[in-house]
Amino acid sequence: MGPRSLLWGRRALCSGAAPRRLRPFEAIPRSGRNRWLDLYRLWRSSGFQDFHLGMQSNFQRLGPIYRETVGAYSCVNVLLPQDAARLFQAEGVFPRRMGIEAWTAHRRLRNHKCGVFLLNGEEWRSDRLLLNREVISPAGTRKFLPFLDAVARDFTAVMRRQVQKNARRSLTIDLHRDLFRFTLEASSYALYGERLGLLEETPDAESQRFIGAVETMLRTTLPLLFIPPHVMRWLNHRLWRDHIAAWDTIFQHADKCIQNIYQEFCLGQPRKYSGIMAELLLQAELPLDSIKANITEFTAGGVDTTAMPLLFTLFELARNPAVQGALRAEIRAAEARGPRELSAVLGALPLLRAALKETLRLYPVGITVQRYPTKDVVLHDYRVPAGTLCQVALYAMGRSPEVFSSPERYDPARWLSKDENSFKALAFGFGARQCIGRRLAEAEMMLFLMHVLRNFQIETASKEDIRTVFGFILMPEKPPLLTFRPID
């Protein structure tokens, strides 16, 4: 990081600095000058994969705020937590995030409703309030915790059986695909109340096809952010065809699960908690097509976005054995207090929760959080007009020495200190529009890590940083090899 960026960082965080005169929107530093030429360069150089690194470089070169226009995509990018707080104050009653036109175009093409990820305005708010009760409220979360716990226990048992088959009493593996299977199995169980059997030695081919479709959907989404979908559709470009086919597969998979639970529900099976879908049907407050739209979005969004943080966390714990040992001690102390509800057990694991925060600081699933302010807002001394797409750059913030001390160090304890951490942990967004699957994802990851750490010592031969690429979500260019040794 150069001297200029260090200077602006110190000034920004110095509480005693004198107020400066507001500057107009047009004075915000710009990255690039020709939107279509910049898009062409990104496309030709595979620059999409390094988009997060490009943003980090732009902040170092231009300062804590800059404008960017690439193809059809235009926004203001900010780095500092205080600017994220100002966006929160200006988001209004109906917070609006950047739309993904390619996803919406698929819904129109196939006559599907949109879920809360794509909706805005009053329609978003009414759906969101009804979904909050079952998906993100403490009472709703407690009901699906046993489902997630059962899958985490089963995954650990599968790992133990694999270790026992190995004469070395250890297992060295690229866990990438297994984590996809775990997250789909766990999230589907919580959503639909049924197991898919993905932890078996020969998983269901249809579910494997679904995982491949999710990967294709994410891979093709990124370039479609910069090019109007109607252009790609008119050209009948392969990128567009692959994107639509992937979404069709996702909807077919989700629809099959939905039909199974709906049929059982209509047959009047004995009443017990059978997952989020069944609870929404029982309440009968959301129309069936709205339930299907939202559950499908949950299904598609609950695989990579949970599997990737788990993979990064396991890698960081493998190369930070002291942190791994502290987490294991915390888990043992929590369990030594005797049988309790799962929510109480998870509540007794602050360091484990902090470890996930630390992972998401270094490796945020989404590299930005977007908002359209409903009124003019001042961001780092510039007046930004209402309705401007503004992005908080999470990847760049997490690695900025102006925001975090020793940002390259994996240090979960930083989240337990008395330091000011407001608007620094934004991996799930903020405000009323924060990720609705947040509690599901957090519980899924914590239960997985709790059982894995209790049963295995995790090691890695490589101590080098993982090179990351951006494919609409952040992922490793090459998944690390991890070694699991059982703890007797």
Automatic annotation (TrEMBL):
Signal peptide: none annotated. InterPro entries: CYP11_CYP27_families (IPR050479), Cyt_P450 (IPR001128), Cyt_P450_CS (IPR017972), Cyt_P450_E_grp-I (IPR002401), Cyt_P450_sf (IPR036396). It is an enzyme of class 1 (oxidoreductase). Pfam families: p450 (PF00067). The keyword Thylakoid does not apply. The keyword Oxidoreductase applies. Its cofactor is heme. It is found in: Mitochondrion membrane. Its EC number is 1.14.15.4. Keywords: Heme, Iron, Membrane, Metal-binding, Mitochondrion, Monooxygenase, Oxidoreductase, Steroidogenesis, Transit peptide. Belongs to the cytochrome P450 family. PANTHER family: CYTOCHROME P450, CYTOCHROME P450 11B2, MITOCHONDRIAL. This is steroid 11beta-monooxygenase. The lineage of its organism: Eukaryota, Metazoa, Chordata, Craniata, Vertebrata. The gene is LOC106487808.
